[in-house]
């Protein structure tokens, strides 16, 4: 295993320097004042990525930073050997040190076809073989040549998976609806083991024209296998012949024995590798539902966009490296300002699952408390990530962001151009006006004097103004990043996802945690197996847990018995 050792973060000189900078500037830095004093602040703290699909603008000028702070953060990245760690990831070193695995989701979108040698094998060839197989399958299904058991073409695709096998494909197919809506297929997703999820989807589809994708690397994931077996039972009840399963079920898995036992033809099994983490897997065969929905050519453009950002991340200097800057600004708030959450606020309805996708991407990656040196951290790691699309969020939780007592750094994301220029683009103009107004309001705020002067123009009395005016004050100085895409396309979406993936990597690298395992999800799954058996056993009371869990199990059993 390739060792990559660093000092404990809080012992780093650059970390101590940032503590000093926070003591110097933390309570006094004022964005409104800095914008007034420096008319070129935007130019100093923004970057533009020139892509084949248009320019992506990253504006980080509305943050509680100055050049001294940014210099200190860049020095921290250098001391933490972020560039060296990055290069190890791209090279295939086993940086997932708790599972002794390489981390090579970037190899899935290696559009330059550079050789990547792992254990003596050029995995670029393996990736291209799977992509070619996906392409051929997509062309068969989308053209209507793939026929079901009654000779009808496929009209609906149901993806059954959970976690990374669900969240990524679901988010991307929603984001790229303009490219899928004109195609021949509808896509549906089932993830929750709650039977309601499967039942609601099955009500919408016809067994004669439905293709099920079972996405499970090992073909043993409890929720996925339960949903898959229930979908198979539903299908066979209609088809009246289990042999027809082969025409309506395909697998994204590496377990040929389990797949064929299920009834799926091994020719319809699409493989991937243990160097692909679930939450980084939409670029692999896990993205088959995406490719079927938007077409393989557009799926390749998604890969192209991610590859573009991979190249930027690998080659741009730290000072101009957008995912690095995103990560460092997040470090500044988490580790020095004490902020605990990070809001992702896309002003595009197609991106309505983007924040949920990166809840998993970020929180499952960096929700850790032990370093590579087996030391417990004495600093904050991954933030709580959340968000909703604008303008819905403005009428829900923005109140707290503007006037609450918590510092909540925000990412505002919007496309300059819309796919749906309703009423000559009026809707999008209003959307963008709100988008821009929110970042300005968060930064600028409104002083008591401004509030009073505004209220004097109304019919309110002086007494009423004095009573109400403090409640209308906005302190401002609330930080945000702005990311402007030219339009939400397969390419720009791929680029946007990769920016956040690499941001997460950089933060995990600085915190010296393993961003690529997820042991935290295992304990609950382990206990659930015991509890499941106890829920089925009506002959005795549960006694092996704490009093709360025992009584909850027994309460549910009692209610089930009475039914």
List keywords for this structure.
alpha/beta, five-stranded parallel beta sheet
Brief overview, please?
The protein is an alpha/beta fold and 563 residues long. The protein has helices spanning 13-25, 31-37, 41-44, 67-79, 82-91, 123-143, 164-175, 177-180, 195-202, 222-239, 245-248, 256-262, 288-294, 296-315, 322-337, 354-366, 398-403, 422-444, 448-455, 462-468, 490-511, 522-536, 547-562, and strands spanning 46-51, 54-59, 117-118, 121-122, 156-160, 186-190, 210-215, 249-252, 269-270, 341-346, 384-386, 410-415, 480-485.
Walkthrough of the structure:
With 563 residues, the protein is α/β, with parallel strands linked by helices. Helix content is 49%, strand content 10%. The protein has 23 helices and 13 strands. The strands form three sheets. It has a six-stranded mixed β-sheet with strand order 1-2-13-12-10-11, with helices on both faces. Strands 6-5-7-8-9 form a five-stranded parallel β-sheet, with helices on both faces.
């Amino acid at each position: 295993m390739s060792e990559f050792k660093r000092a404990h973060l809080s012992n780093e000189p650059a970390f101590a320097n940032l503590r000093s900078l926070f003591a110097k500037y933390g309570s006094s830095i004022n964005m409104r004042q800095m914008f007034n004093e420096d008319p070129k602040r935007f130019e100093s703290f923004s970057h533009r990525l020139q892509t084949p699909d248009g320019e992506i603008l990253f504006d980080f000028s509305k943050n509680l930073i100055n050049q001294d702070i940014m210099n200190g953060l860049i020095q921290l990245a250098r001391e933490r050997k972020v560039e060296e760690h990055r290069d190890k990831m791209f090279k295939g070193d086993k940086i997932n040190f708790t599972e002794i695995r390489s981390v090579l989701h970037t190899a899935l979108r290696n559009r330059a076809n550079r050789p990547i040698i792992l254990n003596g094998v050029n995995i670029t060839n393996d990736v291209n073989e799977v992509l070619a197989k996906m392409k051929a399958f997509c062309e068969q299904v989308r053209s209507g040549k793939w026929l079901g058991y009654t000779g009808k073409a496929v009209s609906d695709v149901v993806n059954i998976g959970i976690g990374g096998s669900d969240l990524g494909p679901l988010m991307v197919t929603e984001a790229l609806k303009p490219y899928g809506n004109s195609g021949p297929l509808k896509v549906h997703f089932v993830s929750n083991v709650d039977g309601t999820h499967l039942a609601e989807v099955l009500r919408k589809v016809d067994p004669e024209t439905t293709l099920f994708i079972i996405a499970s690397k090992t073909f043993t994931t409890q929720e996925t296998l339960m949903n898959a077996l229930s979908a198979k039972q539903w299908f066979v009840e209609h088809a009246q012949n289990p042999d027809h399963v082969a025409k309506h079920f395909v697998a994204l898995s590496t377990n040929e024995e389990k797949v064929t036992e299920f009834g799926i033809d091994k020719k319809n099994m699409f493989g991937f590798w243990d160097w692909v983490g679930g939450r980084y897997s939409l670029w692999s065969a896990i993205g088959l539902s995406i490719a079927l929905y938007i077409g393989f050519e557009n799926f390749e453009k998604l890969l192209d966009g991610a590859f573009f950002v991979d190249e930027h991340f690998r080659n741009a200097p730290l000072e101009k490296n957008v995912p690095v800057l995103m990560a460092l600004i997040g470090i500044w708030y988490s580790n020095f300002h004490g902020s605990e959450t990070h809001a992702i606020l896309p002003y595009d309805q197609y991106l309505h699952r983007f924040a949920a996708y990166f809840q998993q991407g970020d929180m499952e990656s960096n929700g850790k408390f032990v370093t590579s040196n087996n030391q417990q951290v004495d600093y904050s790691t991954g933030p709580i990530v959340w968000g909703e699309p604008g303008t819905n969020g403005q009428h829900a939780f923005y109140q707290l962001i503007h006037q609450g007592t918590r510092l909540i750094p925000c990412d505002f994301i919007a496309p300059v151009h819309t796919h749906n220029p309703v009423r000559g683009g009026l809707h999008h103009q209003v959307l963008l006006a709100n988008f821009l107004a929110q970042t300005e309001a968060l930064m600028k705020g409104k002083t008591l004097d401004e509030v009073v002067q505004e209220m004097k123009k109304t019919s309110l009395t002086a007494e009423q103004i004095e009573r109400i005016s403090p409640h209308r004050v906005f302190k401002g100085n609330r930080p945000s990043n702005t990311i402007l895409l030219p339009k939400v396309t397969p390419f720009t979406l791929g680029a946007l996802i990769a920016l956040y993936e690499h941001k997460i990597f950089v933060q995990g690298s600085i915190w010296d945690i393993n961003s690529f395992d997820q042991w935290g999800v295992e304990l609950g799954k382990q206990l659930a197996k015991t509890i499941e058996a106890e829920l089925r056993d009506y002959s005795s009371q549960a006694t092996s847990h704490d009093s709360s869990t025992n009584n909850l199990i027994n309460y549910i059993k009692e209610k089930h018995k009475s039914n």
